[in-house]
Amino acid sequence: MGWLDQLAEHVEDLRHAGRLQQDGQSALALPILDGVLASGTDPATRAYALVQRFGALINLGRAGELPTAMAAAVEAVREVPDPYLRGQMHAFAALAAHLQSNLDRGVTHLVQAARALAAVPDRDAETAWGWHDLAMAYSYLGFHGQALTAVEQAREIGAAAGLAPEVFAAPGIRLRNAVALDHHGDTDGCLRVLRDMDAELSRYLATDRLRPGSRTVYGYALARRAAVGEPTVSEAARWLTGGGDSARTRDLRHLGSVCLSIAAGRPQQALAMLAAVPVSAEVLGPAEPARLRSMCHAAAGDHAAAHSADRYAFRLAALRIDQLRDGYLDGVAARLDAQETHRDPGRYGDETLTDPLTGLPNRRQLERYVDSLLSRGERAAVGLCDVIGFTTVNVRHGRHCGDLVLQRIAGVLHRVMRRGDFVARFAGDEFVLVLPGAGPNQAAEVSRRIGAAATAENWQALVPGTSVGLASGWSEVGTNGRGLSAALAAAAASRKPT
């Protein structure tokens, strides 16, 4: 049974509205959602409808209505303590903050959305779409790596619910990643991604599983290649038609037409089109129109103007460098944990139980947690992790970068732990993991996931030229009367790179 099936009323109306949204028809979904809100009385039904209405207004670009819609969604979700609804609402709120150019608020919502969706127990279609929407929010705010991770989570959960992987192709994420590479000077990398998208489009056409809302995304990818003189398998102009009613789709159509004018040898017409119709800086980043102007000038033979436009595009792109945002993301996560400490003293005790840098429980809270576990006669696997290369980071890059590395490690551990596991910062670069009820096999699996996640991090962007990794060792508490100190000593003795 899916999440929607548990609602008390208007299930089919909400399911129909959801399909329309997924197909890029938010204008048609909106009156259905308004009808549900006009007659529905069930709190969970109304909360879901308000969250989806908030998303529809974002898709339609109706920025003036967003504050009121968001306030209504927030209030409704507060009254229905459901992690899926909370995660979906925060994903949309991140997009709304992005449209309003409020980075700090947007990043805060991203962190909250990821944590809420990670706590959803059911692997159903609605949860998969929640992760998909979070992936889109990550992408629009410039976190391309996190976007790809979230969309993989959407595919995995969707597969468990019987949805084909193609449903969560999310070409918009790859397109934004491609143009971001170009904005930073890696045109070859951009073209590689665009070529892959062309091949992907051909595969999806063969299976007839292309989502209507993806049409203009693929169309723009084709047009962008055509603008630099690359032949494409499919015809770009065909795919720039249709695709839904969102503001993003309209902007992609316009920019795609600009690219096709460049490809047709009409650079002056393309420049006039760029000047005549402004597009949102949030669709493909503020640097994309400047980059297209550079291509227009180059096609017209005005290389000085092309160089000037390229420099301007690069300056705009530099404001959105992913490595700075990654550090910012982990910093906001730590700040939210600290805020939760203040709000929930019953859970954390007092400030002295929380590490202020990472927001994780500290050594004192770890000891209380394990004492409580042992008093109930339970056992647990205990892992001790430390950072390989941490001293070198501090020496080469300074303690500020060392702090960012610790925050990033805290984020890695938080993402890969099982629900109900406990993570604490023990001392310096050491972290302790407690897995209640787990034995050696479960500990080995968690250790494997930690190693894979740490290896996948882009450490070179944060601390160039310095290798960062994790070493871990494992033991148990509660077995043969072993306490925390003995377990940690045994874990330290068995440490090895993960």
From TrEMBL:
GO terms for cellular component: plasma membrane. It comes from the Bacteria. One of its GO terms (biological process) is cell adhesion involved in single-species biofilm formation. InterPro entries: Diguanylate_Cyclase, GGDEF_dom, Nucleotide_cyclase, Rev_trsase/Diguanyl_cyclase, TPR-like_helical_dom_sf. It holds the Pfam family GGDEF. GO terms for molecular function: diguanylate cyclase activity. Residues 378-498 form the GGDEF domain. This is Diguanylate cyclase (GGDEF)-like protein. It comes from Actinoplanes italicus.
